[in-house]
Amino acid sequence: MINKQALIDLELDSVLSLVRHHSICSKGKESITESLITDNLSLINERANKIDELIALIKIKGESVNYFVAIDNIFTYKNSASFDGKDIYSVGCFLSAIPSLEAFLSKELIDKDLIELKDNISLSIDEDGLVKETHPLLYPLYKKVEETKQRRQIYSQNFLSSHLDAAQNLNAVYRNERVVLPIKREKRGDVEGYIQGSSQSGGTLFIEPFELVELNNQVVLAEEEIIRMKQKILLDISLKIRSHLDALRYLDEFVTDFDIHYSAACFVIKNKAVRIESSKSIKLINARHPLLGKKAVPITLCLDESTKCVVLSGANAGGKTVSMKTVALFTLLNQIFGFAPCEEGSALPIYSNVYTDIGDGQSISENFSTFSHHMSNVAYITKKADESSLILLDELGSGTDPQEGSALTIALLDSLMKKGSTVFITSHYSTVKMHAYNTDFMMNASMEFDERSSMPTYKIIPGLPGESHAIEIAKRMGVSKEVIAAAKENLGSTANVTKLMNELSGKNRALDRKITQLELEKRELIKREKEAELIKLQNESLEKKLRKEGDIELNKFLNSARKELERLVHDVSTGKLNSEKTKNVKQFIKKLENKANETHERVKSEEEEEINSIEYDFKEGDEVLCGSYSRRGIILKDLGKGRYQVALDNIKMTLTKKELQPAKKEEIKFSSSYKISAVKPSLVMDVRGLTLKETLEKLDTQLEGCLVYNLSSFSIIHGYGDGILSRGIHEYLKKQKDVKDYRFATPEDGGMGKTYVFF
Fold this sequence. Notes:
Helices cover 50% and strands 16% of the residues. It is an alpha/beta fold. Helix 4 crosses helix 9 (245-270), helix 6 packs antiparallel against helix 8 and helix 16 (494-573) packs antiparallel against helix 17 (579-615). It is flat. It comes from Bullifex porci.
């Protein structure tokens, strides 16, 4: 368990948020935390191997995996419960994303039963978790409801038409979810039925005749049947999901695990991270803190196995604290994913814990000074530290008398060295630097400082203690020239030490550059040697293949020629020699000569092609085929004397003219696709508030969509108003040959404020 304060100081969660940015599921995103830190090397390698595989796939297929919605809720229901519609819809969405993962992995993850379940959910449930009205089992029930309502409407209209003296008007009314008829109070005795209410004036009674009662009941029963069928559909799907819970749980865990490694792989590619080797010593090459982005200055730090303590010194704001935090952060990233943003060859040990004492920690409310805070942390760290601990100490001993502070720092470092811990400490104390110089297992390192610009370069110089450069920084901050001059005079003989250290630093940098240059040249020679060997093997293989193919072709020709020769000999030896036999012999000889000439011309043509390719005048930007393997590359630079710098993928190589031939332009493949442009129609079209022109334009689009999607009917809500919309709509529908019928809605469904349209 890594110390919580260390996680905060190192801003690990902020770095992991960069990884979580690539997540494809919420559960995987929630799993990318410090809980993944492990000191199990086998587990680290297992994760790193998976990430390596995914990196290769992403480079080929891109980040092409769809997002997976959470399905955690389905695992919490009791056995007898029907799932909520939204949870069922989530399962459908989850399964719908599986094909993108299967395509990415080139691996089958779900069987036909789960595919059928996905299709069933897609057919049955909408995004609000409701059963779709277009479900095949609901269609006949909705049709039955409409037919029953139609009979009820016909009965109501016929009744009112036949009782004109008793009817208040010819429109049925919808009361208490039932259709009733408006009857004049004084004509109550002429109509047998139940009174469902009256108008405010009392002059109209709303009566439900006995026959209408039965029709209303039939409508209610038909609608209840729809509700029961929807419940049955939900229950059936719930049972199917429940029967596949184990498979869904496996898929959920598989996707979560995949997401952790997939997100890490995307992070690795984006941040140009590399796999960290396992080692007993620290070796970081051009390490870049991921939170600094393009502003990050790469740091390189290589320690031998015996070095257990590094004393970092140098100018304020020179990068000491960031550098040692980078080392610790990369340690944690390595123990999560096995990767970190640095260069190949970087290696790190495995630590069981990381401790930090960074910042002043001053607290007025708790009566804590800077020094008290440091000592409180250090007391805790020294109790917990062991040989597998990595410890960062920032300005230990500051905030008190320098002599006592440096003495205490040295004593604490010696104590931690006895425990075998690995320690990074920043300090300005000369006595601490001197102690590191004279003590085994300890090493000085400094942050480089540019004397000309009086600015830090943020680069680590191992083996040399650094100066604080307080006077240079004070001058840059605007302190007066008089004060700066007096300070330099007060510095006295110490300036000689500074000059000596600067000279050593310059020689050290020159030596580093020379070593780096030699190392790069060595790598280039090794790479060229391997490539030459590969080309040689490829040429030998091609030569054997061509020889074999030539032998096969020659044997076929010889067998054919032998049979034909035998036949000619037989013809000549039997019977008399005539002109036809002589002609056949001459034709055979001519055929042999033609074959020889054809072979000669082909060889000559190949030689000419080879000569032409060698003599081709290549220019920068030309596409070429390189070597016998014909790898496609681009000419970057003409180096002269028949040599060219060529880019092959991410590799730059120097090749001779003989190793290149012009590349044909790649054939451009065209593909075409089509899609239906018609807008998907709605069952109910609301045009209230639109002008007649806008309404007819919208209606035209709706009619087109109905024909494309084979919708048999829909309704238009236009309201009562002054009748302009309803009349205009009806006039328009009358002219449409695809419209079979149209009429006002039933009273309970909007009456004359709504129109039904049938195809």
